[in-house]
Amino acid sequence: MIYGTDSTGATGTNVSSVSKSKSEVTNPQEAQDRFLKLLVAQLQSQDPMNPMDNAQMTSQMAQINTVTGIQQLNQTMQSMAGQFTAMQVLQGTSMIGRTVLTEGNTLGVAADGTHTAAFDLEGSAASVKVSITTASGELVDTIDLGSGQEGRNYFTWNPAGKYSGDASQLRYTVTAANAGAAVAATTLSPHAVIATSANNGNLTLELDNGSSLAYAEVKAVY
């Protein structure tokens, strides 16, 4: 940009005041208009015996074009970001009514009275058992799954004849072992998606238990 004065100092105050307010301009067209007015004022006030050379003028024009281009690019990117967020929310509506798996230990939603949940094992296990309890820790049932493979494993459980309350709030833990050594397990809870929204440009799912979940945290959809 044009900062400073000519050799006579005649326009020092005007150039300085314009330069200070220049940083406040966010509209590319306004910034370009201010530059042209400043350039004309500088040309009119320059010392005829020591005029601005062509290289200096070309450099200043290249600078304003660069700044204007960056501002226009920023505005374009902001507009595209807004459109992308709206598109995400619109596409996210296809998730409503679907069931997602996220880290947790509740049985969640049931299909035809049967609950399906999952867990991730850090390694293969020769023995895998699932213990289902109430929120207070009272044992409701134990499922012996036999062996388990490394990675994602699913199990189903029907509370008929075993529990008459709200089974979706029951907890479960996984105990896995291989050759006498424990195998770490991460439990995954199923939840129904009831709505979608956007948070800081990211798709967010509203779940049936009242919580919100970033789409990036979804482990599986079914």
UniProtKB/TrEMBL annotation:
InterPro entries: FlgD (IPR005648), FlgD/Vpr_Ig-like (IPR025965), FLgD_Tudor (IPR025963)
Every FlgD Tudor-like domain range: 87-219
Domain FlgD/Vpr Ig-like: 105-177
Gene3D superfamilies (UniProt xref): 2.30.30.910, 2.60.40.4070
Signal peptide: none
Region named Disordered: 1-30
UniProt keywords, alphabetically: Bacterial flagellum biogenesis, Cell projection, Cilium, Flagellum
Compositionally biased residues, Polar residues: 1-14
Record's keyword annotation contains Protein biosynthesis: no
Family: Belongs to the FlgD family.
Protein function: Required for flagellar hook formation. May act as a scaffolding protein.
Protein name: Basal-body rod modification protein FlgD
